[in-house]
Amino acid sequence: MKRSAQVAENEPGLNPVPEDARLQSLDERLRRAKTEEAVRSGEDSGKGDGDYRLGNRVLAELIGGMIGGALIGWVFDRLFGTSPWFLLGLLFFGIVAAFRNIIRISTKRSK
What is one Gene Ontology biological process annotated in the Swiss-Prot or TrEMBL record (predicted)? Predict the structure, then answer.
């Protein structure tokens, strides 16, 4: 009996079949397709970072529009001697332009 156990150990049995390269390639393509689909459909895991950047962009548009309009209006007031009128007018136009850009950003993001 001891001899038959030794023979069974030494005999070549079923060797594990190495994984086929085609299966590895298929797995890789499936993983890539799933990640591309998640990005395309907006289910990407890095969504929080994108929202943070979007918030910073909206804030920059709002502040930039107001400061830009006020600065250009102040310069025109100094050049032409029209006390607060260019400042107020261009500040208003800067705010309108900033809100227009913010609305454009928000509608582009929701698609």
Answer: proton transmembrane transport
